[in-house]
Amino acid sequence: MIGRPGSTIWLLGHELRLNWRGLLGRRRIAWRLGSFAVIGVIALIAGCLAALALRHFDVPVNHLSVLAVDTAALLIFSLMLSQTLAGATDALYTRGDLDLLFSSPLDPRKTLTVRFASLATSAFASFAMLVTPFLLPLAVFGHWRWLAVLPLLAALALMASSAGLALAVALFALIGPRRTRTVAQVLAAIIGAAFFLASQSQTLLGRRSGGVAMQVAAAAADPRLRLPPLADWPLRAAMGDPLPLAAMLGVGAALFLGVTAWLSRRFADDAASAQGADVGQRRRSGRTVGAFAGGAFAATFLKEIRLLRRDAALLAQVLLRTLYLLPATFLVLRNAGGHASYALPGGAAVIAFLAGQVASSLTWITVSAEEVPELIAAAPASAAGVRAAKLLAGLAPLIAMLAIPLAVLTWLSPVTGLAASAGAAADAIAAGLINAWHPAPGKRSEFRRRRSGSILTGIALVVVSLLIAAATGLAALPSPLALGPAALALIALFTLRRSPAQIADALAARG
Hints:
There is one protein chain. By secondary structure, this protein is mostly helical. It folds into two domains: about 10-215 and about 230-280, no CATH class; about 295-510, no CATH class. Helices cover about 80% and strands about 0% of the residues. It is built from 21 helices and no strands. The protein has helices spanning about 10-25, 30-55, 65-95, 100, 110-140, 150-200, 200-205, 210-220, 235-240, 240-275, 275-285, 295-310, 310-335, 345-370, 375, 385-410, 415-435, 445, 455-475, 485-495, 500-510. α3 packs across α6. The longest helix is centred in the middle third of the chain and has 51 residues, at about 150-200. It is globular, with a radius of gyration of 26 Å.
């Protein structure tokens, strides 16, 4: 144990241990540590190769390098902000330990400062682990100043955690505790995908775009470009220039200390409000519980729909994937409206693939997540009927999401629209069936920290989705070759299929 019990270092060490345990999970710790080690070795080898190639290269300070580093810093800051905003919401609603900490002899401000510092540390560590295997070989081969990237990341993490905390408290003040949970999780997902959406803005507007790198290069080559003052400071800080590096660290630390000191008391009050928000709202509303739906199928379907709607973290996860689906759908609609038939098959394939990915997230939750699975098992309803209701509940949001865009696409380009509709439906149903045949049982509260089921199931989902996407693209041409990948997808599904008795035996074995 580091530090004296009750000290800031002691509390921070406790928070970091909890974050580390959350990263590793409760099961297969040795396997995950081994996976991290293998990835680290591969990254270190790649870093050594990059260091050998760059050992005589010095980064020039020009428009291209300044814009490239500024763009990278903005991307990292947005991802860190998304992470810290979700972490602040987690501290308000999920952890549930602030009441206990505030009733202890510890100073509440110290407790909250340490909690916020752990958010900043986690955001910093996420990116530091990615770049360190590349920075260490560069330092050994002579570019030791590039190690200043690490304190630059620390400065960005401090700024992002300050902004995330302020945004969470502002949401609480504007929309109240009940809505803040959902809005903050959704906003965190939108912020995380904002850079991707911004990078696609030129393409969505019908202008040619070669991606972020090409956009940065084109902007740097524009002779009319005038960079604002201090625009080169992130680059100079990353290269180890003492003044810009110290200034960015100082700004980050000042923002963090100022925001935590200013908002810690308000955050404590918000945490207390969040703990009783649901109960208080139900008492004030005076609403009565509605009548049960007729039949086990309808009751199960409505139950899963309500749980999906209430799960803010799940909404954020699914929304993040949906944000990548919407630009692809918009591009296909625009190309269909402009009669750009050469671009339609690829867009239809992308829609089908992403529809399967979104459906896999939804059906994974509805099929496998149960707080009391023994209660469902003992209910007077067939297991097959319950699974069918859960599958339909997982697919219903995707159907509502894609119905209008696919209808418009079918009107603009009937062949492409029918191919995209059939492909999206087939991919979504296939993802749901695989999740139903190979469930990964667990409590719903634990699923927010789990990314997926088994590795084999995840690989099978991707392979089947790719085959269906390929068939969709070929069908949009149209081409009889679409029958090939479609047949392979059917064979893969037939191989993965389990009977109800096999599913019951697998669940019993998991026990």
